[in-house]
Amino acid sequence: MRRDYYAVLGIAATAPPREIRQAYQRLARQYSPDVNFWDTAALALFEEIAEAYRVLSDPQARALYDRFGPALDADGVAAGRRGDDVHVTVEIDFADVARGATLRLNVPRFSPCGACGASGRRDSRACAVCQARGVRRAVDALTVVVPPGVDSGTQVRVPGEGSAGPFGGARGDLIVSTRVREHPLFTRTGDGVHCEIPIGVWEALRGARIRVPTPLDDTVLVVPPGTAAGQVFRLRGHGLPRLADGTTGDLYVTVRVEMPTGLDARTDELVRELERLLPGPSRADLARFRGGAS
Ligand SMILES: [Zn+2]
User: Which of 251, 225, 252, 227 is nearest to 239 (CA)?
Assistant: First the structure.
């Protein structure tokens, strides 16, 4: 299936070691990744040239190769080398983190050339479609399952969905890096999720049951009577799933007490009434801190 190593280096099967070395040096210069760093075709060719030279420059490996042909390499392993891993990045929503997601991705990768059956040769000539490499670059639509609980920078490895190796080599892996979009309400620290919910003055005073959204659904937050602004309530198991063990983290709700402004005469009168009925703020002992004393 693989291209003949002698053909790769453009030499006769009877070439002496010096000729092999010269052919390699000339081709390596021509297809060096330092010169052709933008050209993935040149890189694949360069790797092929290096592999051919590795085998043919080693007398033992060359003897083995001459005996068993291009189907076996120096280690006696059949078929071409494994293809490269392919990396893609996807942006996902908070909801995808909570539930997991099945994504349809367009993945640019090398696949076996159909024109030459991945052999690199057609009608005993170099295949023009794949430049005799046996693989072609194409964009394939792949379905990738992202498990619940990933974070920005998580890498999901999909075995055997990367680039095909040249001349029938196995596929490398597809590596999907996730980036989680910011959410207008929720922020995430580790496996905890935080949000801020406004409550009314009367709710802070008298307590309330408030329906609050969670990353997965919604739930009821019980605000006890006498809740202060900035108080944090922990709702166990209403955060995000943990990637490691599938358990779910907690949701931390900070309450913000919304102050009414521009009171009308009637409300103002009622607040004055409250002022008389409710205990005053405990500021009495602040006086002793005056002047920085402690
Ligand atoms: Zn081809």
Answer: 251
